[in-house]
Amino acid sequence: LNNFINLKQVNFVSLLEIIWDFNEKNIGIIFIQTNFNHRNKGYGSLLIIMSCIIAERFGLDTIELDDASDNFKKQKNLYTNLSFKYVENGSPEMIGSTKQIIRQWRRIKLKYRFHRDILSETIFD
């Protein structure tokens, strides 16, 4: 997969790399990036919310990440808008509840005018 992603002719809108920990019942975001021309259109939020929906199906209830973004500790950034919380002051570690993040879908759907509803369409049916 890494070789495929690194090909110059492949142009992704947004990428999300996650670790699934079934023992600890959580998922961890390792990497997220959206192509510069497609930023602020909700694609990163969409990927995180979809990951939380899948995690819920497997009984995983928390999601973790280290905020290494340019908006680290800013009041309104991608992660805080999805209800992630910083674990401690001055630290980049964040944690979120998959249920709370999924609840953000309606707001994200309206804000970015997504036409499909990922909550009513399920990939597991």
Order of helices and strands: HEEHEHEEHH
Mean pLDDT figure: 86
Regarding quaternary structure, what we see is: single chain
Rg, nearest Å: 15 Å
Shape: globular
Task: Summarize the biggest pleated sheet.
Answer: 5 strands, mixed
Distance between the termini: 26 Å
- Given helix and strand content, the structural type is alpha+beta
Tally of helical segments: 5
Walk me through this protein's architecture.
By secondary structure, the chain is of the alpha+beta class. It is built from 5 helices and 5 strands. It has helices at 2-5, 43-57, 78-81, 98-103, 105-112, and strands at 14-21, 26-34, 62-66, 85-86, 93-97. The chain has a 5-stranded mixed beta sheet. Helix 2 links the parallel strand 2 (26-34) and strand 3. The protein is globular. The two termini are 26 Å apart. The model has no long low-confidence stretch (mean pLDDT 86).
Q: Could you provide a short overview of the structure?
A:
The protein is of the alpha+beta class. The protein has five helices and five strands.
List descriptors.
single chain, 125 residues, alpha+beta, 5-stranded mixed sheet, 23% strand, globular
Task: Describe the secondary-structure layout.
Layout: H1 2-5, E1 14-21, E2 26-34, H2 43-57, E3 62-66, H3 78-81, E4 85-86, E5 93-97, H4 98-103, H5 105-112
Parallel strand pairs: 2-3
Antiparallel strand pairs: 1-2, 3-5, 4-5
